[in-house]
Amino acid sequence: MGLFILRRSGVMLLTALCLTFIVFTLTNLYPNLEKLAKTQGNFRMTDEAVASWLDKNGYSQPMAVKYGQWLGVLPGWTLESDDGTTGRCITGVAAQVQAAEAPRFCGILQGHWGHSTVLQKDVASVVTERLGNTLRLMGWVLLLMIPSALIIGVLAGMREGSVTDRSLSTVSILTTATPEYVSGVVFIAIFTSSTVGLKWFKGSATAATENPTFENFFLPVLTIALYGMGYIARMTRASMTEVMTAQYIRTARLKGVSFPKIVLKHALRNALIAPFTVIMLQFPWLLNGVVIVETLFNYKGFGWILVQAAGNNDIELLLAISVVSVFVVLVTQLISDIGYVFLNPRIRIS
Amino acid sequence: MTHNSTTDVTPHWAAQMHAQEVIDGKLDRREFLTRATGLGVSAAAAYGLLGLTAPAAQAATEMKSGGTLRVQMEVRPLKDPRTYDWSQMANQTRGTLEYLVEYNNDGSIRGMLLESWEVNEDATVYTLNLRKGATWNNGDAFTAEDVARNIAGWCDKGLEGNSMAGRFSTLIDPETNAAVEGGIEIVDEHTLRLNLPGPDISLIAGMADYPAAITHSSFQTTDFTKNVGTGPYLLSSLEVGVKAVLDRNTAHKWWGEEVYGTPALDRIEYTDFGTDPSSWLAALESDEVDMLYESVGEFIDVMDALGYPKSEVVTMATIVVRPNQLAEVDGKRPYADKRVRQAIQMAVDNAVCLELGYGNRGQAAENHHVGPIHPEYAKLPPQKYDPEAARALMDEAGMLDFEHEIISIDDDWRKNTTDAVAAQLRDAGFKVKRTVLPGSTFWNDWVKYPFSSTNWNPRPLGVQIHALAYRSGEAWNEFGWSNEEFDALLTQALAIADADKRREVMKKMEMIIQDEGVTIQPYWRSLYRHMREGVANADMHVTFEHHHYKWGWSA
Fold it and tell me: Is pLDDT at A147 greater than 80 in this prediction?
């Protein structure tokens, strides 16, 4: 098991390296740098001014050098001018003496995630803060989605073909078939606007970052949860119907064990193996879902900074976001692999 | 000749002449105010010339003292004010970093940090009298030294993206890319003189523009909440894309309390709801904001129907849908041919663009980028709209088979207007391809696209727009247009302080722009803003400025 985790971590590191290099290359293409210079300088800036801005801010170095600096394996750039020294490891313009005291290396290895050009803040603090908001959203989504999905799936799978099964299956197919950007808009139209008159909730979750209430937070949660719920419920149902036809269940029924007892004591554990993996797969997918829903409801979380960073070519912020995303995807996979072993003792990890 | 209404100095001769014209009914009152105040006459004195009293400054009794106003607005990253490219940025800092003068909706310019100013007859010497008793909020005295430093900074062409350099180009020495030697002269602690190498009538108007914020010598761009300014508010928190908060600075005595009264609000909160107007409406409906930055498109009708109070202002803000004469498509310069440009112009009916592009909320324009609110506007005979003739002309130029690609940004009115132009060109029998680019990439090449649309904010004077965008070789000349005759006329116009004499030159300039088919400039926009019941004195401003010290809640 130890070796397995170690190997997985190695793969994770390698994936992160490859992915960040790709993101780095794409964000450092000249048109993107030009865009960056224009958002930072003036969006009606001339070409000469763009080139001079890029020069002054260390963006015109070779790609590999810049990547090395971001990683922290190459010393950060410095530039001396009449006003003082500027550089990667120096905040603002510093005098000669202060510049000499600044660290030579400042990259990921040294714990420096860099500076977000659009949010004008330290990347590490931006990411932690926004990730916190999204985790809160995701927490409530999971809390709503998993129990209800499991309940729906188990209820539907207990008796295949019954009225309960048919109606619950229809509901799950319907919710899975409706993506967030459809259901979200429909919810906003029905539950928030003055035109319909059902002003139960608020159409904007901006205030929820500071002060989440049922009124301003429930709609985004519901929108994401509904989409995932149907999928998990379908998986649970399939797994449950399969278990319910198994030999040992039939034996138990013949021996006169009551139906609720069969479901709870014998069928459930086996039926939950498949949904468990699916649930774990939901985490990386939730990161996608929040991009849409956070934009729709104006909730300032991880998905929102992803859009901001991509739209403004905020290089270091995008890199940090990709690192976090790689981490989330691979860690949840690791957890699902390990959890699988506990649910199904026949599988051994070696 | 001074701006101070309490003195009995004779007003500028031209102002008196214009006053007579208003009385004779030859001149619009709004135009008069722009001209007179631009010549250094105070708004009160200008009304006085007409035998009227100036509209009373907002009576303090109708507004409650205190309170918070929550406003929906994009919260943008801040930088050196000289490089500001969005009005929002200036609104975020305007509470602290103030301006020398202020442009108002009636077309007048009034003093803020300047108490008064005088311009000599041929607009080559400006005397600026600073507000006495104004202090920076760290206790430093506000002196001519500060203003001189700022003006010198405006003239620094070496700063990338410094748009003030364009407004003060007369004062800049092309050799050194800085202010001319002796151009900025400190007369005494509260007086400053600008000695221009050539005449320029637009300097005072340029000082009212949003990148002209006056900064302290300690100004820095790492943390804007710590910047020292002269204003009544402090930017107490700034989270880009999320929120900006302005708090009343109780520790500092604002100079304006004696002049314009005590600001009412304790706090102004700007919250960013993205760029989608439906989110803005949701924010208003969810009681998360009290006022919108701007209402656009069909949402204006929606919010009217919901009963929110509306503020409207007619502006000289507009859009140009223009071919670029220098742009190459497949190795050729399709728009270098005057016939092609004229054909394009002739095939488009501006009234249709206004209707389909902006829901008839405005006034049709005449393709030369000078309008009725500009003092030097000269009315020209209506242009010919004739798709048949346009087709014939295009055929004559041998360009009937050419496929025009028209590029626009992806939004509501700019996209719709460009679509309307494309549809009319298609109706005339031209081949047209439409490309819509997202806002984040659109601005990369905005001056270089062969055929595209760009929105333009209003400027107080028509010649300012021409100097900024239509002169040969200007950085913002997106038309790729260069015309010696026009340049010469412009230089001439920029030296005429009297708007009537300037109009004669302007008429020729307008005609050249029309005749050369430089651009389709279809209409002038009206701007709108919706707010909650009870918000007082927060009317929509012609150039999107937020004058926080005027705002409040009605009692």
Answer: yes
- Which tokens in the block code for residue A118? 């659009």
Two tokens, residue B331: 């190795």
Return the closest-CA partner of residue B246 out of B275, B266, B218.
B266
Residue A290: enclosing H or E segment and its boundaries?
helix A273-297
Work out the minimum CA distance from B160 to partner chain A, whole angstroms: 5
Identity of the residue numbered B218: S
Is A204's CB within 8 Å of B85's CB? no
Q: Do A42 and B476 touch (CB under 8 A)?
A: no
Q: Could you read off the pLDDT of A227-265 as tens digits, one per residue?
A: 888 888 998 899 888 888 888 888 888 888 888 888 888
Q: How confident is the model at residue A12 (pLDDT cuts 50, 70, 90)?
A: confident
What is residue B153's predicted lDDT score, i.e. its pLDDT? 94
Q: What are the Cα distances from residue B232, in Å, to B78, B112, B247, B252?
A: 19, 12, 9, 7
CA–CA separation, B358 and B372 (whole Å): 19
Task: For residue A83, count other CB atoms closer than 10 A to its CB.
Answer: 9
Residues of B in contact with A219 (CB under 8 A): none
Give me the torsion for CA of B535, B541, B547, B553, rounded to 10°: -10
| Cα–Cα dist A221/A299, whole Å | 11
Q: What tokens were used for B3?
A: 């701006």
β-strands B291-292, B68-72 pairing: parallel
Burial (CB < 10 A; 0-12, 13-18, 19+), residue B118, is middle
Contact A298 B446 (CB under 8 A): no
Q: What is the pLDDT of residues B505-527, one digit of tens each?
A: 999 999 999 999 999 999 999 98
Q: Write the CB contacts of B235 (distance below 8 Å, at least 6 apart in sequence).
A: B92, B93, B95, B96, B224, B225, B227, B244, B245, B246
Question: How many other CB atoms are there within 10 angstroms of residue A109's CB atom?
Answer: 11
- Residue B118 has φ and ψ, to the nearest 5°, of -130, 140
Q: What is the largest CA-CA distance in chain A?
A: 92
- List pLDDT tens digits, range A306-334: 988 888 888 889 999 988 888 888 888 88
Residue A276's pLDDT band (cuts 50, 70, 90): confident
pLDDT recorded at residue B540: 92
- Work out the burial of residue B250: count CB atoms within 10 Å of its CB; fewer than 13 is exposed, 13-18 middle, 19 or more buried: exposed
Q: In this structure, are residues B453 and B319 in contact, taking their beta carbons and an 8 Å threshold?
A: yes
Give the Cβ contact number of residue A60 at 10 Å: 15
The whole-number pLDDT of residue A15 equals: 87
| pTM of the entire predicted model | 0.78
Q: What is the ipTM of this complex?
A: 0.79
Min Cα distance A111 → chain B (Å) is 21
Q: What is the DSSP letter of B56?
A: P
The answer to whether the CB atoms of B85 and A42 lie below 8 A apart is yes
> Which ranges of chain B have pLDDT less than 50?
1-9, 56-61
Contacts of B551 (CB under 8 A, 6+ apart): B69, B263, B264, B265, B268, B535, B536, B537, B538
DSSP-derived pairing of the beta strands B114-119 and B535-536: unpaired
